Amino acid sequence: MNIRGILPAALTICCLSYSGIAPLSVTAQNNIVIFGSGRDSTLPYTTRTKRPGARLNTYSFFAKLPSNKAVAEFQVIYPQAFRGIFDESVEIVNRQTKKKYAIQETIVDKEVGSTRYVFKEAIAAAPNNELELIVTGVSNPSDSGMYRIQAQALGTEANPLFKFLGQWLVDIYN
Question: Contact at 8 Å (CB) between 103 and 134?
Answer without folding.
Answer: no
